[in-house]
Amino acid sequence: MISKSxxxxxxxxxxxxxxxDGTLVRGARYGIFKDYTVxxxxxxxxxxxxxxxxxxxxxxxxxxxxxxxxxxxxxREQISARKDELQSCYIAEMKRATGxxxxxxxxxxxxxxxxQRVHEHPRYLSALLTGNIKPAAxxxxxxxxxxxxxxxxxxxxxxxxxxxxxxxxxxxxINEHLGANLxxxxxxxxxxxxxxxxxxxxxxxxxxxxxxxxxxxxGDLRAHxxxxxxxxxxxxxxxxMVLDNL
Length: 246
Description:
This protein is an alpha/beta fold. The chain folds into two domains: 4-28 and 104-244, Rossmann fold (3-Layer(aba) Sandwich), CATH 3.40.50.1000; 33-98, DNA polymerase, domain 1. Helices cover 41% and strands 12% of the residues. It has ten helices and seven strands. The strands form two sheets. It has a five-stranded parallel sheet with strand order 4-1-5-6-7, with helices on both faces. It has a two-stranded antiparallel ribbon with strand order 2-3. β5, α8 and β6 form a beta-alpha-beta unit.
């Protein structure tokens, strides 16, 4: 089977960098993330630090760990040295907390329809650009039935303490995967936090903010000057029109 990336001029392609939590998927209740992150930190480092008090929206998982444990004197280097242990414990705790996941993590309203429309469009390819560690991101896609829409390499929250680093990492992988040399403005970040907007601007990508997260209102997002702002993903025609006009 010939993929659409092989049948279209690379200069016409647009790569959609999708955020995950608050954009495509959500927990059944606010703060469920801490149900598996707190036990992970306590198991590996003996403390969860200030995680209980933190608002973690838009942060990478590595950044969350660093911020939570800074007051405990635990350094970035110590965190990096135990990253594999953290990831293994994280996934074990996540599976324990979510069970089969269907009642705990769900696709955002409209997400599946929009991803299907994008998947069928010859101009667009989708990749994940998320603060989640890679195995957690793919577990969430599996739970919500969204896995089939993502066939390009992306970038994840176990790869940097700074979300702004992720677009360049993903773009390098995608260019190698496609045998292309795509410009930064051929990438479109789609997310629900100011950090999504900031990482797009840092890389030179376009950005669509979606006011579907639990923390940041449409007004909050508008203040960071995205290229477009959507209230949600429910109107797939509107989403496609916005993307086509970028």
